[in-house]
Amino acid sequence: TYVIAQPCVDVKDRACVEECPVDCIYEGRRSLYIHPDECVDCGACEPVCPVEAIFYEDDVPSPWAEYTRANAEFFDRIGSPGGAAKLGLIEHDHPLVAALPPNAQ
Ligand code: F3S
Ligand code: F3S
User: From the CB of 19, is ligand 2 less than 6 Å away?
Assistant: First the structure.
């Protein structure tokens, strides 16, 4: 899977959402999250993020290593909806993201 890391927080450019062929990039309050079971590893999202927040799971920079787990755990309460568009904005964040000060990136 691919992972959205800290640079997305409070930026939420959403260019990645337009690129994803399986609509597996979900919007939380302060960040977006990639569904690890729905992502087909096409890689289309990674180059379009203007703040370079997206990484292949093996390439997440070490300061942001916890974001691999955070992206997965974001879906603990949502499951696998099979598409982000129908959910729209999901009014919560992973605790890792929620705990960041404003504009922490
Ligand atoms: Fe975030 Fe970059 Fe997508 S800022 S919403 S990961 S384009
Ligand atoms: Fe979508 Fe990016 Fe995965 S475009 S399929 S989230 S690699």
Answer: yes
Give the ipTM.
Answer: 0.98
CATH of 2-90, one of 3.30.70.20, 3.40.50.11290, 3.50.50.60, 3.40.50.1000: 3.30.70.20
What average pLDDT does the structure give for the chain?
A: 97
- Please tell me the pTM assigned to this model: 0.97
Within 13 Å, how many C-alpha atoms sit on residue 8's CB side? 33
Q: What residue ranges line ligand 1, CB within 6 angstroms? A: 4, 8, 11-16, 32, 49, 51, 53-54
Q: Residues 6-20: pLDDT tens digits?
A: 999 999 999 999 999
